[in-house]
Write a structure and sequence with these properties.
Blueprint (H helix, E strand, L loop, with lengths): L5 E2 L3 E5 L10 H4 L4 E4 L6 H7 L8 E4 L12 H8 L4 E6 L4 H5 L4 E6 L3 H11 L4 E6 L2 H23 L4 H21 L4 H4 L2 H10 L6 H10 L11 H16 L4 H10 L5 H9 L7
Parallel strand pairs: 3-4, 4-5, 6-7
Antiparallel strand pairs: 1-2, 5-6
Helix pairs in contact: 2-3, 6-7, 6-9, 6-10, 6-11, 6-12, 11-12
Length: 283
């Protein structure tokens, strides 16, 4: 990348601006005041622990979405657990890396419990093609990013099984209800889930084949049970959230069904029959 100015493996065709300094030294990179941590959710804890001696009071902005399997913590929660002296934050919302790198208009949420730091990071990260909205509701932003991936798998499964766009719309709507239900029980704001980090990200992820989670669902729905090697954050999140829902006795039928699907506990046709046969209820 230093030689060519391109990362053809992950961002083909996108030239890396000269003002971005490329280094293979994590220690050198960690000397910066603000770090954007772009690693898979389930690897976040191990990465932080590995480099803990070099991480002190920096601004640590997680760019992953999901819920840790063992603790049921989101990215901000994991950072705070490992590095209580750091300032944890989360950058989330409806976006694909290719779009941002190609300077296509994008809007994201910056979640940070420290309102002053949230304002500072908002101004630091925003640019002419990237609009940043800030919130102090880190729990709501975390849950929006985790749950929308689970619902995206469900939507992809419906389309892959040939159930049509009306079924997808129903899953998105009822899935959003599950997102709000869990978020409010865990102390988050409904308003946060109605924003970019919840509804906005849900709309993008459930309708675009650029989404790995949606493509995973397409694969499941069409009868392919082989889980691809690429990172599918919704798989681990479905398992973690389903376990949490069972522990707290929260009714999350779509999320629980997705967890059963990815674990091979139920077939697609059986899952569809189970959801459609649930008792009729008011909206």
């Amino acid at each position: 990348m230093k030689r060519t100015g391109f990362n053809e493996q992950h961002l083909p065709g996108v030239f890396i601006p000269e003002k971005i300094k490329i280094t293979d030294s994590t220690h050198q990179a960690m000397a910066c005041e603000t770090l954007l941590i772009a690693v898979p959710m389930q690897a976040l804890r191990s990465v932080l622990k590995e480099h803990e001696p070099y991480l002190t009071n920096q601004n640590l902005v997680a760019c992953c979405k999901g819920m840790e399997l063992t603790t049921h913590l989101g990215p901000v929660g994991v950072i705070a657990d490992i590095l209580p002296q750091a300032n944890p934050a989360l950058l989330t919302g409806p976006s694909f890396a290719q779009d941002i790198a190609s300077r296509l208009p994008t809007a994201l949420t910056l979640a940070c419990a420290n309102s002053d730091k949230a304002l500072e990071l908002q101004q630091t990260l925003a640019c002419d093609t990237l609009r940043i909205y800030r919130t102090t509701d880190t729990v709501g932003a975390e849950l929006g990013g985790a749950l929308k991936n689970v619902i995206a798998i469900a939507c992809g499964t419906a389309i892959g099984a040939g159930l049509g766009d009306s079924a997808r719309a129903a899953i998105m709507t009822r899935g959003f209800t599950e997102m709000v239900r869990l978020a409010e029980i865990l102390g988050a704001s409904r308003h946060t889930l109605s924003g970019l980090s919840g509804l906005g990200d849900l709309a993008l992820t459930c309708t675009s084949k650029q989404s790995r989670n949606y493509r995973m669902g397409l694969s499941l729905g069409s009868g392919n049970t082989d889980i691809p090697e690429a990172t599918i954050e919704g798989i681990a999140s479905a398992r973690a959230i389903a376990t949490l829902a069972q522990t707290k006795k929260i009714d999350l039928p779509i999320t629980t069904t997705v967890a059963d699907l990815v674990d091979g506990k139920v077939a697609v046709k059986s899952a569809i029959r189970s959801l459609l046969s649930r008792p009729l209820n008011k909206e």
